[in-house]
Each structure stands twice: as structure tokens, then as C-alpha cells.
Amino acid sequence: MNDLDLRTFSMRFTLRQLAYFVAAGEVGGVTLASERINVSQPSISAAISQLEAEFGLQLFVRHHAQGLSLTPAGQRLLHAAKALLQQAEDLHGIADEVAKSVSGPLQVGSFRTLAPMLIPELCKGFLAQYPAVKLQVSEDDEAALIAKLRRAEINLALTYAIHLTDDIAFEPLAELPTYILLPADDPLAHEKSIELSVLAEKPFILLDMPLSKEYFLNLFVTHGITPNITARSVSPETVRSFVACGFGYSLMTARPMNMAAVNGKQLAYVPLAGDHPPMVLGIATLKGLRKTRATERFEEHCRELMTTVNLPGMAPMR
Predict the structure, then answer these.
(1) pLDDT, position 240
(2) Quick one: which of 240, 235, 229 has its CA closest to 183?
């Protein structure tokens, strides 16, 4: 069907009308058809009349008190109507199969600092169970991930519960306490925990990502401390390399299993002393957006693997 046909084509009959016509044609009468499909006789008669008016054809010969018999045109239309109804049933079956299967595209967003640790292991296990899913991952900061959810560019985001708005649903999965990142040879590296005030005068390397930096800087504000920021970067690996080279310390929540920076120098993770609210990691989705079966299964997969005491790729906190 070409573009002109699509503009002028108009369906002026329904599958229900065809079904009523087929029922009457197969049993040869409105009364028997009414009993067979449990539909009132007037509804069946009206459907037949509407089809005859639409097609400009007489479909039945009415026999007083003896039911109906199909005209030659009615016989041809009966075969075509039955085929069309079967195709409609097949289409419904295909749609049902698609709805119940775990397949198709799945767009997962991940907070940039977490992606190298979480995503590969999560994806490997998930795709082993559901190989028909076409999974793609988008890495970004929290604000950008929320924007992508609103534009329906991603189905879900693994991110922190920071500045969430009413249109975003969030399911918490794990809590990540803030820790102090130090060079492995720093004199404080073997402490059980460190108060932020102890580090007040030391050079601070800031992870300068939207929302994350506000969280970390607010920790200083709460203690009435002004951090001595000597370097900053949007890249967690760059921050880790600065710290590993002895430029200062940093604050982070994600704990890569690899205790070395990309430059090969060793690092230490020391808990931040005091009562500080942890970062809450979980699944963010757009409210009101119908979830695909693949999305639901990936969420279930995340619930099984992501907990406070056990996160893929994450080093334990001493």
C-alpha cells in the first residue's frame, strides 16, 4: 500500500462485526449464532446490516422462520472474513509472545564512578540468562542520568539517591559510606578511621562531578571546615592517580577492588570517622513509564547481586 492509499484508506467495519457475520454464516441463522457466541440477536443482525451497507452487497438471503443462507457474495466474504480473523488472532499471539519474552533492547545508565566495577559483572550474569536482550550501557554523572531517564533514552539508571525529583522512582539497594582515599605509604593509611578535622590543612583532591561534589563539600560544611582544594577532576581515575602520587587526599564512596591507581601506585581506603549519612545506591526509573520485561528482569538481577555487604567489583570496607 503506497502513501496515497494510506492517506485515503479508512476502516469502516470492525473485527467484531466480522466475527458476528462469520458466526451467523456458519450456522445459517441469527438465533443459533446468538446461542453459540452468547451475543444478543439484535447485535448480530445489526452487524450484518452494517457490513452489507458498507460493502454494498447482500450477504444473506433471509428465509422467514427458516434462518439465513449465504449469497455467492456472502460465501466469498465468509472465507475472507475467517482468514482475516485468523490473522488477527495470530497477531495477538505474536504480541503476547513478545510481551512475555525477555528480549529486545535494554538501555542501562550507570553512574560513571560505579560503571567499571558494577556493570561488567552485572551484564555478564544477566546476558547469560537472557541472551536475546540487546543491552547497551550509558555512563554519566547523576544529573545527566536523570535527564536521560526523562527523555526515555535509558530504561533505568544505577545511581545515587541525590536530588531526586517527584517524577523519578528510586529503589535503594545498597549504602556506601564515605571513606578517605590516601597514598598507601601515608602515615595515616593504617588508621582504623580518621576524623575529617585531622585532614583540614592537608591538600584535598576534589572529584568535581555534578551533585557528587556537593555531597562531599557538604561534609566539610557540616564540620565548619574549609577544604584546602589543590586539584580537581571529573575523572575518578585521575583523582586516584593524584592521590597515589602524594598530591593530597580525597573523599570517595565507590571502592574499586584494585587498590592501585592506573599509574600503578598503591592506595589506601580509610573509613571516615563520625556519623555521616552514607550514599545510597539504587535503581532510578521514570515514573509512569511502562517497564519492558527485560527492564523488570534486569532490576531483579540487580536486587540479587547488589547489597550493602556485597557489591560486584567493590572492595570491602575495613
Answers:
(1) 96
(2) 240
Please compute, for residue 271, the number of CA atoms within 13 A of its CA located in the half-sphere on the CB side.
13
Distance CA 162, CA 211 (A): 7
Alpha-carbon Rg for the chain in angstroms: 33
User: How far, CA to CA in Å, does 291 sit from each of 56, 155, 163, 167, 308?
Assistant: 46, 8, 23, 15, 26
Q: Strand 104-111 to strand 133-140: parallel, antiparallel, or no bridges (unpaired)?
A: parallel
Contacts of 182 (CB under 8 A, 6+ apart): 188, 189, 243, 249, 267, 268, 269, 270
Tell the burial category of 158 from Cβ atoms under 10 Å away from its Cβ (0-12, 13-18, 19+). buried
The cell numbers describing 295, all together, are 527492564
Q: What does the pLDDT read at residue 318?
A: 64
Give the tens place of pLDDT for each residue, 180-205. Answer: 999 999 999 999 999 999 998 999 99
Please give the pLDDT value at position 8. 47
Distant-in-sequence, close-in-space partners of 143: CB < 8 Å, separation ≥ 6: 163, 210, 211
Nearest one of 17, 39, 41 to 29, comparing CA atoms: 41
Interior angle at CA 155, CA 303 and CA 216, nearest 5:
70
Percent helix / strand / coil, the chain, rounded to 5: 40, 25, 35
Record the cell numbers describing residue 270, joined without a space.
Answer: 580509610
- Burial of 169 (C-beta count, 10 Å sphere; 0-12/13-18/19+): middle
pTM of the model: 0.64
User: Contacts for 300-303 with beta carbons within 8 Å, 24 or more apart?
Assistant: 301/122, 301/125, 301/126, 301/129, 302/122, 302/158, 302/173, 303/173
**Low-confidence spans in the chain with pLDDT less than 50:** 1-4, 6-9
How far apart CA 222 and CA 213 sit, in angstroms, is 14
What is the pLDDT, as a whole number, of residue 242?
Answer: 97
Cell digits for 163? 536530588
Strands 179-183 and 168-176: unpaired
